[in-house]
Amino acid sequence: MNKDTEIKMQAAAFRGLVEHLQQRTDVQNIDLMNLAGFCRNCLAKWYLQASKDLGEEMSYEEACEVVYGMPYSEWKEKYQTPATQEQLDTFEATKPLHAKISGHN
């Protein structure tokens, strides 16, 4: 496989993941962090880092909007629920497993 095809496939996979996460507004970021060690915010941070690596100007808020499909503040207002104590405890216990880009470890 040539590099151009590989990059197109990776981009398509990213778009599919973003679309899926935009549809699954019932899934809270803390649950993603607790189960997988990354969440929508991590994905936005990876996207932002990629823009910087490629010399593109982008803010974190703009990267979040790519991932959330709307401003993060709007998504939080519409869909984010308060975390339970159990979720918070699991979050703390799993910090060593969180994606490095999350800033939690």
Keywords:
SMc04008-like fold, 6 helices, mainly alpha, 105 residues, single chain, globular
Report on this model:
Helix 3 crosses helix 4 (60-68). The model has no long low-confidence stretch (mean pLDDT 97). The protein has 6 helices and no strands. 66% of the residues lie in helices and 0% in strands. By secondary structure, the chain is an all-alpha fold. It has one domain (3-102): SMc04008-like (SMc04008-like fold), CATH 1.10.3340.
Number of strands: 0
Task: Give the radius of gyration.
Answer: 15 Å
| Distance between the amino and carboxyl termini | 36 Å
Query: Mind describing the biggest β-sheet?
Result: none
CATH class: Mainly Alpha
Number of helical segments? 6
DSSP strand (E) fraction? Answer: under 5%
- Characterize the overall form: globular
Residue windows where pLDDT falls under 50 for at least 5 positions: none
**N-to-C order of helices and strands:** HHHHHH
Brief account:
The protein is an all-alpha fold and 105 residues long. 66% of the residues lie in helices and 0% in strands.
Secondary structure elements and pairings:
Blueprint: H1 3-23, H2 29-36, H3 40-53, H4 60-68, H5 72-79, H6 85-93
Helix pairs in contact: 2-6, 3-4
